[in-house]
Amino acid sequence: MSQPLSLLKVLNPQAGWYRGDFHAHTNYSDGVHTPAQLVEVAIAEGLDFFAVTDHNTIDSFSKFGDDPTTLIIPGLEVTLKEGHFNVFGMEGRLDWMEHICTGQDTPELTGIYGTTTALMKRGSSQGLLNSINHPLMPWEPPLEWRDRATDLRYLDCLEIWNDPSWPENDHANPKAVALWTDWLNAGYRITAIGGSDYHQPAPEPGQDKPPERLGLPSTYVYAEQLSGAAILEGLRRRRAYVSVGARVTFQAQADGTTYEIGADLGELSGAIDFKATVTDCPSSGRAQIVRNGQVVSETPIEGGQAVLRWRNDADPARSDWCRLDVFGEEGQMMAITNPIYVGPRRRPVSHSYGDFASAPSGKQS
Fold first, then answer.
1. pLDDT at 358
2. Which of 123, 128, 137 is nearest to 165 (CA)?
3. pLDDT: is 15 or 2 the higher one?
4. With 70 as the cut, is the pLDDT of residue 8 above it?
5. pLDDT higher than 50, residue 142
6. Residue 1 pLDDT
7. Does the structure show a pLDDT above 70 at 67?
8. How many CB atoms lie within 10 A of CB 52?
9. Torsion of CA 296, 287, 176, 218, to 10 degrees
10. How many C-beta atoms surround the C-beta of residue 243 within 10 A?
């Protein structure tokens, strides 16, 4: 008999980088696979974990088999006319879900949870993680995030990289990265993740696009063990990068200490040595170290590999963030890390989504 999804179940006690997908659907919403079939797809793709994120329902939670190799993280895609956001970490039905899990495609927000901010604030108070999905993807009905009043202080993650099989995402994903970059420069430390938004393996009749693949893109998370709780803690610590094949490392060394992706070095002065590696990249291209939104070092990727070094002279009064971006030969994204932070923490002044993103199609939500 299938057991409810548990965050505490440990599939591997070893610390390391685990590969997964934070956006997938079953036939309990608009996917085609049963929960057990989705697990089989994850196994075939070689994933360590995936998050099940059906639209406005958690009915699939008790329907997964007890597979000993693939971790399933409980999640929910809150699907509204204002946009879609994933919530990760619930193990059962919670109070606010009576306003969301109503059987409607896009329920109206009313009562004490009458805004997206109220919903996110409540989820945060329950220890859950909130992540806006495909924030700038044009579609009809709307898929982009349309609530300009959403308070970013209750947002933990941003899906900067959604299903690359959709042609619209050729433009929407880079725009999402640019939006996230603006948030980083403003002082937010929201974790960037990817999501395949997997529904079905083959396009529907009339769709001119490649097949969807679970795990494309993949999000790699460094966790102390392979469990739901540890993977989500890795997201909280920003120990993650997103990729469509390339494996990367990104480290900073200062005063004899090595720091990894997501680390906060604090207020330092003197030299900080950054090193990045790229392996198994399926395309030639370039690797870049980016500081505060500007490229400060770049090297070509040859034979699927690259090594990149850069020295930063830290100023204890300056707030810096540095990340690794990897691009293919045609300029397409191949991998991107969350930053390493240096210096005093910048405190955001603007808190609303609309302070950073233009209203989609000129419309107000």
1. 66
2. 137
3. 15
4. yes
5. yes
6. 46
7. yes
8. 27
9. -140
10. 25
Instruction: Tell whether the model's pLDDT for residue 365 goes beyond 80.
Output: no
The one-character DSSP state at 117 is H
The region of weakest confidence among 30-34, 153-157, 355-359 is: 355-359
Distances (CA, A) of 114 to 75, 100, 151, 158: 21, 11, 14, 22
Q: Please calculate the CA angle 312-317-320 and round it to the nearest 5 degrees.
A: 45
- Rounded to 5 degrees, φ, ψ at 37 are -65, -35
Tokens representing 344 are 């005093």
If we measure between CA atoms, which residue out of 173, 203, 242, 185 comes closest to residue 22?
A: 242
φ, ψ at 99 (rounded to 5°): -90, -15
pTM across the whole model: 0.96
Distance CA(301)–CA(286), nearest Å, equals 5
Q: Distance between CA 91 and CA 126 in Å, rounded?
A: 11
Answer whether 148's CB lies under 8 Å from 353's CB: yes
Candidate CATH numbers 3.20.20.140, 3.40.50.300, 3.30.230.10, 1.20.1740.10; the one for domain 11-243: 3.20.20.140
Q: DSSP letter string over 220-267?
A: EEEESSEEHHHHHHHHHTT-EEEESS-EEEEEEEETTEEE-TT-B--S
Give me the CATH topology for the region 247-342. Immunoglobulin-like (2.60.40)
User: Among positive and negative, which fits the CA dihedral 68, 71, 73, 77?
Assistant: negative
Q: Nearest-CA neighbor of 75 among 14, 145, 35, 25? A: 25
Give 18 or 139, the one with higher predicted confidence: 18
Per residue in 108-130, pLDDT tens?
A: 999 999 999 999 999 999 999 99
Domain spans in the chain, listed from the N-terminal domain onward: 11-243, 247-342
Q: List the helix and strand counts (H, then E) for the chain.
A: 4, 20
362 pLDDT above the threshold of 50: no
Whether 190 shows a pLDDT value over 70: the answer reads yes
